[in-house]
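Now for a typical sample entry:
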Amino acid sequence: MHSSWVIDTTLYLLTFMSFLSWSIFIAKTLAAWRSQRATAQYLATQWQSPRWETLSDATHAQDSDLAKLSHAGMSICHECTHGQYGTEELYTLVSAGLGQEIKQLTRERESWLGVLASVSSIAPFVGLFGTVWGIMHALVVIGETGQATIAVVAGPIGEALIATAIGIATAVPALIFYNVLMRNTRLHVTQLEAFAERFLRLALKHRGKWSGA
C-alpha cells in the first residue's frame, strides 16, 4: 500500500487553495485601493461645492462606486419627472433606488469572499485527511514488517505532519483575509449609505432640475 500519491495530491490541493486565497486577497486589495483613490478624486472635484448641473456629466467619467451611485440616483430622478409625486413619495422612490444600487455594489465587493470562507473551513480537514492517511499507512507498514522502529514509520508520519502543517498554514491566512476584506466591505457600505443620504438631500433641493439629469 503506497500513500505517496495520496499525500502528494493532498499537498497539491492545499497549495492550490493557498494560492487562490492569496490571489483573491491581493486582487481585492488592489481593487479597493484603486476605488478609494477614484472616490477621493471624485469627492474632491465634484462634491466640495456640488452643482446639480455639472454632476450628471461627471458621473460618466469617474470610476468610483460613489460616481456609480450618483449616476444611478440621477437616472432615478430623471425617471421620476414623468410622474406626479409629492416630496415624501420622491424621497421614498429615490431612496429605494439608491438602496438597490448599494446592494449591487456590495455584491460586487463581496464576490469571491465566499471562497476565502470555504478555504478557511475546508483546509484543516484536508490536512487532517492527509494526516490520517499517513498514520494509517504507517500502521500498515508496521503490520507488514512487524517492526515499529523510527526507520520504518518516520516517512509516513513525516508526511502526515507536513499535511497537517500545510492545512493550518492555508486556513489561517484565508480566515484573516476574509475578516479583513469583510471589515473593509462593511466600512465601504457605510460610506455609500452616508453618501446616498447626502445625494438625496441635494436631489430634493434641486428637484426642479431633474428633467436635465
Summary: Residues 4-44+51-212 form one domain. The first helix runs from residue 4 to 46. The mean pLDDT is 87. The chain has six helices and no strands.
